[in-house]
Automatic annotation (TrEMBL):
Domain of life: Bacteria
Species this protein is from: Billgrantia zhangzhouensis
Segments for region (Disordered): 523-558
Name used for this protein in its record: Sulfatase-like hydrolase/transferase
Lineage per the UniProt record: Bacteria, Pseudomonadati, Pseudomonadota, Gammaproteobacteria, Oceanospirillales
Protein topology in the membrane: Multi-pass membrane protein
Keyword Cytoplasm: no
Transmembrane segments: 15-32, 38-58, 116-137
Length: 558
C-alpha cells in the first residue's frame, strides 16, 4: 500500500515542526487569555499559514543556509514559559510566594496525584516543542539570527522571573517598612467574664462569590441559610500572600500575610522547623487564657507545614489523615488528599463531645476538602443526597461542602454542643482554576466570612477588607478587648475603624508587600540559627623584661 504524497509531505520535519510550534503557541494563548478551547486548531492553522507565506524552514535560496549544529539560546526561556503555563493552567493564578513556601514547608503527602498525568503530558509537549524549535533555527538562517533577541524577550516577559527579580531587589535594597509600622502586637486588654468557646470552620475554596445565583444557581444556598442566623461580612478580598490554604489560615489567625522565609532564612530552602515563629496568633492568645485547642483536617498535617504551625502556636491536639484514617470504619474510604468531609465531620462531632465534657473553654479549628480545585471531592453522603457526580462540575462540590457544613452545625446544635460558642465559617482562600472559572472571574471576588453566636448581630455588612481582618474580628466576637480594635495588620470588622484596604486600597497594599521585607523578617524572627562569631585568636602574652622595668612599686588603693 502506497502512502499518498500529501501525507508524506506533511510528515517532513518542516511541517511537523511548524505544526508542533503552532499547537503549543495556540495552547499558550488559550491559557493566558479568554480564547475558547475550540480556537486551538484555528490558531495553529494561522501559524502554519505564516510559515507558508514566509517559507520558514523551506530549502531555497531566500530562507535557507547550511544547517547549523548550535543549540538555540531560547531553549531555556521557552522551557521556563512552559513551567509558567503549567502552573497557570493548574491554579488559574500563579503565586510565586506559594511555590517558595511549599518548597520549604514540605510537599510530601499532598493530594495532587491527579496532576501527574498533566505534568507528564506537559513534559512530552515541551520536549516536542524544543526539538521543533531547534530544527527550525538550525535550518532557517533568519530564525537563527533573530532567536537570541527572542530569548531576551521571553526572559523579560516571564512573570516567574519578574517576581523572583523583584523579591531579590527588595532583599538587597531593603526599602521602606510601611507594613511593619502598621503591625499592631495582638494584646488582650480585657477578657470576658464567661469566655465563649470557638468553632472555626474553614471550607476549602468555598468563596462567597458562589452566592451569586445568576451565575451559580443554588450551589451556595445552604451557606446563605446559615448566614441568616448570624452576621455575613461581604467584601473580604484576597490580597497577595493569602491565596493558598496555609496563607489563608495564617492571615485569618495571625493578622498578617504569609510572606515566605525564602532567602531570609540562613539555610535557604532547607525544611522549616517552625512556621511564622515571630508573631503571636489566635492559638497563642487563647492558649494563654486556658483554652484547650484542637485542629482537625482530612489532609495530612505534614503537608505545607500545617502541623508545625498549629503545634507551634498553642494547639494541644493536631489531627490529620495519619491520625484519623485508621479510625475509619472503612480505612479505604479516602481520596487523594485524605478523609472525605462526611468522615471529618463525624470525628469533629466526637471531638466536640470530648471538649464539652471538660471544664475549660475550648477552640476547634477544622478544614474541609470537598471544594478543592480542580473538581472537588464530594463525599458519599453528598452522592446520596444530590445524585450522581459527573467528575468535573465544581458547583456540585460547592453545594456538597455547603450542605455538609449546615448539616454538621444543625446536629451539633441539637446536641447542645455549641452552647456559649462563637462559630466562624470562612473560606481559606479564593478557589483556583475550576470548571466555573470563566464565570468566577467575570467580576470582583470575595471570601466567605460568617459569624454566629451570642451577642453577634444578625444581618449583612459590606466592608472592603482582607482575611487579615478576620483575626481581630474573631477576638472581638468572642468578647475580648484589644487595643484600638486592631491585631496584626487587621482591623476588627465589628468596629467602625477603617481597614487598611479601606484607607489605602488593595493595589497599594500589594505593592508594599512586593517591595518590603521588614514585616517578613518579623514573621520568621528566630528561625535561622544564631550566627557564631569567630573566636578571637589568642594574643601573645607580653612579658616585661628586667631591662624594661622602671623599679617603681605598684600603686596602692587609698
Amino acid at each position: 500500500m502506497t502512502i499518498p504524497s500529501t501525507l508524506l509531505e506533511l510528515a517532513r520535519p518542516r511541517w511537523l515542526s511548524l505544526l508542533v510550534i503552532g499547537l503549543c503557541l495556540g495552547y499558550a494563548i488559550i491559557v493566558l487569555t479568554r480564547v475558547p478551547q475550540w480556537g486551538l486548531p484555528l490558531l495553529a492553522l494561522a501559524w502554519i499559514g505564516l510559515g507558508i507565506v514566509f517559507r520558514w524552514g523551506a530549502p531555497d535560496s531566500v530562507s535557507y543556509a547550511s544547517p547549523s549544529r548550535r543549540w538555540p539560546w531560547a531553549l531555556l526561556p521557552i522551557a521556563l514559559w512552559g513551567l509558567y503555563l503549567y502552573l497557570a493552567e493548574s491554579f488559574g493564578i500563579v503565586d510565586l510566594s506559594a511555590v517558595f513556601f511549599h518548597l520549604q514547608a514540605g510537599m510530601a503527602d499532598h493530594g495532587g496525584v491527579s496532576r501527574i498525568g498533566a505534568a507528564f503530558f506537559y513534559t512530552l509537549s515541551m520536549a516536542a516543542l524544543l526539538a521543533s524549535f531547534t530544527w527550525l533555527v538550525r535550518h532557517d538562517h533568519r530564525w537563527r539570527r533573530g532567536e537570541p533577541l527572542l530569548a531576551l524577550v521571553l526572559l523579560a516577559s516571564n512573570p516567574l522571573l519578574y517576581g523572583v527579580g523583584q523579591r531579590g531587589a527588595a532583599i538587597v535594597t531593603k526599602p521602606g517598612a510601611w507594613l511593619e509600622r502598621q503591625y499592631v502586637e495582638p494584646i488582650l486588654l480585657e477578657t470576658p467574664r464567661d469566655p465563649p468557646n470557638l468553632l472555626l470552620m474553614y471550607l476549602e475554596s468555598i468563596e462567597r462569590t458562589y452566592a451569586d445565583r445568576d451565575r451559580f444557581g443554588d450551589a451556595y444556598a445552604d451557606l446563605d441559610a446559615i448566614g441568616e442566623h448570624g452576621l455575613v461580612i461581604e467584601g473580604v478580598r484576597q490580597v497577595d500572600n493569602t491565596g493558598w490554604t496555609m496563607a489563608g489560615m495564617i492571615a485569618s489567625q495571625c493578622g498578617t500575610p504569609l510572606m515566605p522565609a525564602g532567602l531570609l532564612h540562613d539555610r535557604q530552602f532547607s525544611p522549616l522547623e517552625k512556621v511564622v515563629p515571630g508573631v503571636d496568633c489566635l492559638g497563642d492568645l487563647l492558649s494563654e487564657q486556658g483554652y484547650r485547642l484542637t485542629y482537625m483536617g482530612g489532609a495530612s498535617v505534614n503537608f505545607a507545614g500545617k502541623g508545625l504551625f498549629y503545634q507551634g502556636h498553642g494547639f494541644d491536639t493536631v489531627l490529620g489523615r495519619e491520625e484519623l484514617q485508621p479510625l475509619l470504619d472503612d480505612p479505604e474510604y479516602v481520596n487523594n488528599w485524605g478523609l472525605y468531609d462526611d468522615s471529618l465531620y463525624e470525628f469533629s462531632l466526637e471531638e466536640l463531645r470530648r471538649l464539652n465534657a471538660g471544664d475549660a473553654p475550648w477552640g476547634l479549628v477544622s478544614l474541609t476538602i470537598a471544594g478543592h480545585a480542580p473538581h472537588g471531592y464530594p463525599a458519599q453522603a453528598c452522592l446520596d443526597h444530590q445524585g450522581e457526580f459527573d467528575g468535573t462540575d465544581i458547583l456540585y462540590s460547592v453545594e456538597c461542602s455547603a450542605w455538609l457544613a449546615r448539616d454538621f452545625l444543625e446536629r451539633a446544635s441539637a446536641e447542645g454542643l455549641l452552647d456559649n460558642t462563637v462559630v466562624v465559617i470562612a473560606s481559606d482562600h479564593l478557589t483556583m482554576r475550576v470548571s466555573a472559572w470563566e464565570q468566577l472571574i467575570q467580576g470582583e471576588r470575595d471570601n466567605t466570612f460568617i459569624l454566629l453566636g451570642p451577642g453577634i448581630p444578625q444581618g449583612r455588612q459590606q466592608r472592603e477588607a482582607a482575611m487579615m481582618d478576620a483575626f481581630p474580628t474573631i477576638l472581638e466576637a468572642m468578647g475580648f478587648t484589644i487595643d484600638w480594635h486592631r491585631a496584626g495588620l487587621g482591623v476588627s470588622l465589628l468596629s467602625d475603624e477603617p481597614t487598611l484596604l479601606e484607607e489605602h486600597g488593595k493595589e497599594f497594599f500589594n505593592a508594599r508587600m512586593r517591595e518590603e521585607i521588614a514585616l517578613q523578617e518579623r514573621l520568621w524572627e528566630g528561625l535561622a540559627p544564631p550566627r557564631q562569631d569567630p573566636e578571637p585568636e589568642p594574643q601573645e602574652q607580653v612579658v616585661e623584661t628586667p631591662e624594661d622595668a622602671t623599679g617603681e612599686e605598684p600603686a596602692t588603693v587609698q
